[in-house]
Design goal:
- Pyridoxal 5'-phosphate (PLP)-binding protein, which is involved in PLP homeostasis.
- Its cofactor is pyridoxal 5'-phosphate.
- The modification N6-(pyridoxal phosphate)lysine is found at residue 48.
- Keywords: Pyridoxal phosphate.
- 42% of the residues lie in helices and 15% in strands.
- By secondary structure, the chain is α/β, with parallel strands linked by helices.
- It has a single domain, classed as Alpha-Beta Barrel (TIM Barrel), CATH 3.20.20.10.
- The chain has an eight-stranded parallel beta sheet with strand order 7-6-5-4-3-2-1-8.
- Helix 1 packs across helix 2 (52-60), helix 2 crosses helix 3 (71-83) and helix 5 packs parallel to helix 6 (163-171).
- Bound molecules: pyridoxal-5'-phosphate.
- Pyridoxal-5'-phosphate binds at residues 46, 48, 69, 93-94, 184, 219-221, 235-239.
């Protein structure tokens, strides 16, 4: 008799291998359509709401980059995955509170969601104390210019949320590296419009920050459009792991 937990894990592994193959072929096709090199796009598997065992299975299938959106869930999961002897890069992609910076710098390799000067300052201080390697940071941008839903705003005079100021704060920190920008397409916007605008914002940042080349855009439903508009990182949850029980 097969141990039922082993059978379940074998079945889950096969399921994840299937969805991973489908997502990878979508990425390959999107790169071909955009005349881009496949190596220019990193897929991040967003494992939120799914157990560490799924993260370990994905890593075993060759996924090197995993993402989470809440520190409370991510910290434990990252520790479990590390305890399993699995080495991955963790991307923190969710809204980040300043009081969580100390925890996040302990496991994250990249933070995609820095959207204010105050948060950049807090994260820089936490990274300075809590890690021995520089932390890669993407500035999260609000493409519709509405700061209420999060994101720095290009051209804003707000000293805390203006994109140039947030970028300068990250770039000036000795413990952070400004790697690029991130955005989520606003509700009700065509992804083409959102990602075209993000590409423009990213280009606008480059004269001052030539190494900030990363563009984190595109999720399960719109990765092709994001790749067409230059995404270097796509963040894929449900297409890999399945529909989440709650929307978040
Ligand atoms: C959950 C999440 C994703 C993945 O979304 P899917 O639609 O499930 O692919 C990507 N980015 C962020 C910031 C997320 O919170």
């Amino acid at each position: 008799m097969t141990d039922p937990s082993v059978a379940a894990s074998t079945e889950r592994r096969a399921q994840l291998a299937g969805s991973l193959a489908r997502v990878r072929s979508r990425i390959v096709a999107a790169c071909a359509a955009a005349d881009r090199d496949r190596t220019g796009v990193t897929m991040i598997a967003v494992t939120k709401t799914y157990p560490a065992s799924d993260a370990v299975l994905l890593a075993g299938l060759g996924v090197a980059d995993l993402g989470e959106n809440r520190d409370q869930e991510a910290a434990g999961k990252a520790a479990e995955v590390a305890a399993a002897g699995v080495d991955v890069r963790w991307h923190f992609v969710g809204q980040l509170q300043r009081n969580k910076c100390r925890s996040v710098v302990g496991y994250a390799d990249v933070v995609h969601s820095v959207d204010s000067v105050r948060l950049a300052t807090a994260l820089g201080a936490a990274a300075e104390r809590g890690r021995d390697r520089v932390l890669d940071v993407l500035v999260q941008v609000s493409v519709d210019g509405d700061p209420a839903r999060g994101g720095a705003v290009a051209g804003s005079a707000d000293p805390d949320r203006g994109l140039d100021r947030v970028a300068a704060e990250v770039a000036g920190s000795g413990s952070l590296r400004l790697a690029g920008v991130m955005a989520v397409a606003p509700l009700g916007w065509e992804p083409e419009r959102a990602f075209a605008r993000l590409a423009g914002i990213a280009a606008g940042l480059r004269p001052d920050h030539p190494d900030a080349t990363a563009i984190s855009a595109g999720m399960s439903g719109d990765l092709e459009v994001a790749i067409a508009y230059g995404a270097t990182h796509v963040r894929i949850g449900s297409a890999l792991l399945g529909m989440r029980p709650t929307l978040r």
